[in-house]
Fold this sequence. Notes:
By secondary structure, the chain is an alpha/beta fold. It is 45% helix and 12% strand. It folds into two domains: 6-19 and 129-206 and 243-342, Rossmann fold (3-Layer(aba) Sandwich); 23-115, no CATH class. It contains 15 helices and ten strands. The strands form three sheets. A six-stranded parallel beta sheet has the order 7-6-1-8-9-10, sandwiched between helices. The chain has a two-stranded antiparallel ribbon with strand order 2-3. It is globular. The mean pLDDT is 91.
Amino acid sequence: xxxxxxxxxxxxxxxxxxxxxxxxxxxxxxxxxxxxxxxxxxxxxxxxxxxxxxxxxxxxxxxxxxxxxxxxxxxxxxxxxxxxxxxxxxxxxxxxxxxxxxxxxxxxxxxxxxxxxxxxxxxxxxxxxxxxxxxxxxxxxxxxxxxxxxxxxxxxxxxxxxxxxxxxxxxxxxxxxxxxxxxxxxxxxxxxxxxxxxxxxxxxxxxxxxxxxxxxxxxxxxxxxxxxxxxxxxxxxxxxxxxxxxxxxxxxxxxxxxxxxxxxxxxxxxxxxxxxxxxxxxxxxxxxxxxxxxxxxxxxxxxxxxxxxxxxxxxxxxxxxxxxxxxxxxxxxxxxxxxxxxx
Length: 343
């Protein structure tokens, strides 16, 4: 359990540690998915299962052909953009591009969940289980160990005290991991673990593919015969679709303002996403950590300046307390600052 109010701000790079496609990799997968080519009515390239889902989503043969043409153009152009969202932003006045792009995102994320390190299998008893060994080198396991510290079985209800997560991803990796992690340590039933995770404050400005429990839930992973893309596409926003819900914005900014420790994991620091967190009030944060793996040193310095502005650089938060590490993955950040994060 965290001793201080702690906020995790989670971006796409965090999910890559459990083998989900992000950024350029996701764009490449979408390009392959939508590269539809027919020879006298016989499908030669492109994903046939996604095509079936697309037909059900659109329910109009003529319209489907229009979308297939858009998909072919998307498969050519999307590789030249930094991400799927960037491509959709180019065509922000054509809602068909957003619908097709979001349908592809939902489809591929559900597929990726089912082959990720967080996928589960049923044992001989029929009980669903997760193999944790591959996770020990990821930030998930290291975060889970910090979370468990000083939380006995009798105090389990308090495990998420002082923790808030802002997740910019569409996947449900955090919820999936935490439920099975808690089940394994505290020997509780899976539904009890899920109930606990449901109480954790997770804010999702762009939504998620679906709830993992409760009404209209979709189990973690992909079952092509049991899902319908139509309701799921409506669950997510791209950054072209501005987040204007006053209640969501207030929740995001309150979470930032209340936190004593803020940790950015796999976050790309896009100005539009930082703006969602911006608060007019001076922050109470005393420590800010950021994994910026893959960024250059000059860009890391620029990120530090952006965060100083975001957190209203004051006596409480000076640039010396904003630690941006371009040399560390999310997992390595937890290794490097384990004691600092648990203090």
